[in-house]
Amino acid sequence: MSEEHLRTALKSLQERFNLQPAEIQKYPPALLVPPEQIVAVCQALHDEFGFNFLADLTASDYWPEQAPRFHAVYNLYSHEHNVRLCLRVPLDGDTPTLPTVEAIYYNANWHERELFDMLGIDIAGHSDLRRLIMPADWVGHPLRKDYPLGYEEPQFTFNYDDIDRRKHKARYEEA
Amino acid sequence: MSEINEVTVDELKHLVSERAIRGETVLLNMGPQHPSTHGVLRLLLELDGEKIVNCIPDIGFLHTGIEKNMEAKQYEKAAVMTDRLDYLNTIGNVLAYSLAIERLADLDVPPRAQAIRVILVELQRIASHLVWLGTHALDLAAMSVFLYCFREREYILDILEMCSGQRMMTTFFRPGGLWRDVPADFELAVRRFLRMFPARIDMYHALLTKNPIFMDRTRKIGVINAEDAVRWGLTGPTLRGSGPSIDLRKTQPYSGYEQYDFEVPTGTHGDVYDRYLVRMEEMRQSLRIVQQALDKLPLGPVRSSDRKYVPPPRAELGTSMEAVIHHFKLWTEGFQLPKGAVYSPIESPRGELGVYLESDGSAYPQRVHWRTPSFVHLQALPVLSRGHLVADLVGIIGSIDIVLGDSDR
Q1: Which residues of A touch B354 (CB under 8 A)?
Q2: pLDDT in tens, B342-366
Q3: What is the pTM of this model?
């Protein structure tokens, strides 16, 4: 029953919005949606197909590729039909923009703020676009692939002073 | 003092009401260091007298960069980090992570491992609910419940320690099964707990459920109706307190939950008291599941025999060259998952805990994202708390059962 509903939903969406299935997604079944259509697709899924629950919204960075550089991933769940569906939105370039869906799914608010904060995806029309997890004055977007994973350099006897000097320099420059 | 106030109002002008800008309402910081925010949560409250006009949660104080760190680790080595997310549901986190990998790799888990996973996860659920109950009651000024709850929780942590050697940071589950089989006296210990615990639940009920002070502090507080609850993304007991009977163990079963007979308790009013009753009943249902799983605990292996993902048993290394090669490969370069992405949700004590795992075909994850219930529940806090007293806010925070390690990641 529910699988059937999922098939009808996928089929009619593909026809109406001219969408392609996303091969990379193994579970749940996914569609590739261009960013300018995501609001309309979400609206249709919410109103007509009973996908009343936004389970998750995240993104994946494919740097150094530029087109697409990101995939925003929307995971929807229909309580009534008990099926899940995924929407993948390819985003090009280093400073992509994604329209907000917070009018349809209220909880998209923080998920979108997290995208803005951690991956630097600008959200158009968002009501409260501030950094969420990192401090307000943070520079950079930590979950991007070109953002280095910070670590403490191990100090051995042969390079102890060298690293120590660098560390102190950094500290003074911050202050 | 006035200077600090102005700065705050300036950057949050679009969130507070007109009256705060005119100075008619007071902006007050609650947290980040506050005993009843259950961790390092900062709430900026706009108050009219003692009434909450608006509440602006500010999270991130416990951000540990686990998602970023996991991208730099091999799949099996990243598993130890999962324990550090939701530190009251450590074994549930590693289950969600293992399930995502198993789903992506089409890895089968032997029935014995599945049953032991269910037993431990349900015990962990009880332990998590006990911490919730103790701290929730403590916030509402019932001191003694806390002590009893932690006594019983310690028993469960002893069982976890017996299995894995650790009370909390267990990492007992691995992709493809368990780290090792449970010890011989495991069954005895769990059965002792099953005998002892129902009477303890009765005791908690006697202490709180009909207690007039507790009822006054919780009924008609933090009400949310079913439709709003779904739109705000609430899951788990917090959602079920408002009516919808959505439990992933029933609706989308994993780890063999479809074999067990249990009920999904729901509330009707969607207030703090109903969420309390739902969680209390869930502990009883968890006991039922543990009982059934223990009664028909099958014998057999506890790890998958797929050597591309699961290292061979130590004994084989002496006799089989192939085993040595697999062992060496798995512990140096790790296993590679097929290219693809999955979203794999489980029902954690707090709600839907989802892992979005994407693999680019290498031994390192391309992206791991944790959809954590605390994160989603916290953003509904303003809706739940508007119009209530500051003292009630403490009860509301307790009733959505947040863990800050879970929300900040």
Answers
A1: 55-56, 75
A2: 999 999 999 899 999 999 888 889 9
A3: 0.89
